[in-house]
Design brief:
It is a single chain. The protein has 621 residues and is of the alpha+beta class. 24% of the residues lie in helices and 25% in strands. It is built from 14 helices and 26 strands. The strands form five sheets. It has an eight-stranded mixed β-sheet with strand order 6-5-12-13-14-11-15-17, sandwiched between helices. The longest helix is centred in the middle third of the chain and has 26 residues. It is globular.
């Protein structure tokens, strides 16, 4: 964490100096779920962007709802600087147990117990923590931002219209549920994160398309006494006659969540028609767990729901026929545009990924750094990923509810779980080639860092202070592009080698994307941030011989930033070059988007390709 750049300040360094509030709204966010808060926290990083976030409820979420946090989401939390808090509180899913009936069809036995996340899938674990606590951490980030951003609760969206106004083209009216007053807001952009019954989605005329699975499920968080041996493991239990049960241990050491299969719904039934109670869920869980007993002492929260997989055709307000002449002003994210079952633990994770994709694009356009057409890429990228999720979720839900006739059929769910572990960890997302994702012609330079996928971190040593760090943890949610220059063999930044030539080009050439797109008077790394990684041991690299661009002077005093250069960690097994199959002879240059996805892998010295990439969508300053 870096601070004191523009002068010494005592106290909590995570609290930004407060800036004046404005009377206009750049981005209006409707809904305080995980999608809305992820976006709000990201936009709060920019003091010059005015953001409002509204919520129909009277206050923050306190209990219930989602709890599974994928490895990829923890990587994202690190970008907001609260991953450590999540990891301290959460239950870590280290292993998964699969239970099925005995060979004679009676009772239960453990069929297998496996590692939950494969080795080196991520430096972060798969964890369980209440969605309410995730909300708390986002709210804390927002409150400490320069805008001191806090949600406006008790606001029910009544109408939303797009006008011909070129500056603030979206008008929203809200009913204030606490006072009865009507509030009208005009905004440049609106993002609907208002759930499956989204008013924003309905205002766009979009519908969730798909079919309900007609399968009724219950979920409850309980404090219970049982002698079932795997109660503190994630367990998938398929009984012979009473359906299936998914056990998810919760944070704190005692609480347990149970997803309980109930009966199928008739064609004209909804979940509410069955009048499910906590007592009904408890009895069904006991029947599935038999012969093990279950004595529920307290039900902290419970609900009943039906499985359904639905997705919208587009996630913004521009019809396909108008893409060339209009740019989006209204977006939908999270459950507002895709719904699915909670079995795969993807709902909260995918919702947060939606707005992590959108936030930096809105900021770039509002800052005048990128062309407004960039905003089309949100719907294009995230709608395709939502469709993949729907297909995966449908198969996962079907297999979990299946009534296996033999051992082979019973093992199908277990096999599917193992096969798709990368997907459930959230690290399998890959965006297709576009203006902001290259085709991967030079992928061989870094075979373990795939173009279109998130940057897969590995340990390095920071040169300036010799500190072991994860390289991916430098990718903060601050809207900046990153250039990671991996040096070829023998290159330690000395003159006439590739890293020095790259620095000279980026600092001095008129075609340099750093020179073209960095506003006058801003820090040289404020838009595009260069980092170099050398193969040599850090004790052998001389700081005073590095190119100036790797020791940039910044801020009001022209202080030197010593955190731009890293070296291989040679103490702890394979270094980052081996871990991620980076060409040791030639090195590689990675272009990394502000949402941590790799836009390109290219030769370090291919300056024309580097310039042409940013020229596709950036606006010269």
């Amino acid at each position: 964490m870096q601070y004191h750049l523009n002068g010494f300040h005592s106290g909590d360094p995570s609290v930004a100096p407060e800036t004046a509030q404005s009377d206009h709204v750049d981005v209006l966010i409707v809904g305080c779920g995980p999608a809305g808060l992820t976006l709000a926290a990201q936009l709060a990083a920019f003091p010059d962007i005015s953001t409002r976030i509204t919520e129909r409820k009277s206050g923050p979420l306190e209990v219930g709802q989602a709890d599974g946090i994928a490895c990829r989401s923890i990587e994202m939390f690190e970008a907001f600087d609260f991953a450590e808090k999540v990891l301290k509180e959460a239950y870590w899913v280290n292993e998964v147990a699969f239970w099925r009936p005995q060979a004679d069809g009676k009772g239960l036995h453990r069929a297998d117990r496996i590692q939950d996340v494969e080795d080196d899938l991520s430096e972060m674990p798969h964890v369980i923590l209440s969605q309410a606590r995730v909300h708390d951490f986002y709210l804390d980030v927002m409150k400490k931002s320069a805008r001191r951003l806090e949600p406006d609760y008790n606001r029910e969206l009544a109408t939303l219209t797009r006008t011909d106004d070129t500056e603030f083209p979206v008008t929203a009216t809200f009913k204030c549920l606490d006072t009865g007053a009507i509030e009208t807001l005009r905004a440049r952009y609106v993002v609907g994160c208002d759930g499956a019954r989204s008013v924003v989605r309905r205002s766009l005329g979009h519908t969730l398309k798909g079919e309900a699975g007609r399968q009724l499920w219950g979920v409850m968080d309980v404090l219970a006494v049982t002698y079932f041996p795997d109660i503190r493991l994630k367990c998938a239990i398929q009984s012979a006659e009473h359906g299936s049960l998914l056990i998810i241990p919760r944070e704190g050491g005692y609480l347990v969540r149970m997803y309980i299969e109930l009966d199928a719904l008739n064609e004209d039934e909804r979940a509410a028609d069955r009048n499910v109670t906590a007592e009904m869920l408890t009895e069904k869980a006991r029947a599935i767990l038999a012969p093990y007993t279950l004595d529920v002492k307290e039900v902290a929260w419970w609900s009943a729901y039906e499985i359904g997989q639905r997705v919208c055709d587009v996630f913004d307000d521009v019809p396909q026929s108008d893409r060339k002449t209009r740019t989006p002003r209204i977006f939908i994210a999270g459950d507002a545009c895709h719904t699915h079952s909670p079995k795969a633990g993807q709902g909260m994770n995918v919702s947060m990924a939606d707005t992590f994709n959108l936030g930096w694009k809105l900021a770039a356009v509002l800052h005048g750094q990128a062309q407004p057409a960039l905003l089309h890429s949100y719907s294009q990228e995230r709608q395709a990923k939502a469709k993949e999720l729907i297909d995966f979720d449908r198969d996962m839900a079907r297999l979990f509810s299946a009534k296996p006739k033999n051992t082979e059929e019973a093992a199908q769910f277990q096999s599917y779980f193992k096969k798709h572990g990368r997907y459930t960890a959230g690290v399998e997302t890959r965006y297709e080639p576009s203006n902001i994702i290259c085709k991967g012609a030079h992928q061989a330079l870094a075979r373990g860092l795939k173009v279109g996928m998130r940057f897969h971190s590995a340990p390095v040593i920071r040169l300036g202070d010799g500190k072991p760090v994860h390289l991916g943890h430098t990718l903060k949610a601050d809207g900046r592009w990153r250039l990671f220059a991996f040096a070829g063999a023998g290159d330690t930044g000395q003159p006439n080698c590739q890293i020095a030539q790259l620095c000279q080009y980026l600092r001095n050439d008129v075609a340099s994307p750093i020179k073209r797109y960095t506003p006058h008077g801003h820090n040289i790394d404020s838009v595009i941030d260069l980092r170099a990684i050398f193969q040599t041991a850090h004790q052998e690299v001389q700081v005073d011989s590095l190119p100036d661009l790797l020791l940039p002077t910044k801020g009001r005093y022209g202080l030197i930033d010593y955190e731009k250069v890293f070296c291989s960690d040679l103490k702890n097994g394979p270094d980052i070059f081996d871990h991620r199959s980076i060409d040791r002879a030639r090195g590689a240059l990675l272009i990394i988007r502000p949402d941590q996805f790799i836009a390109a892998v290219q030769p370090v010295g291919d300056f024309d390709t580097l310039a042409n990439f940013f020229g596709r969508f950036m606006i010269p300053q």
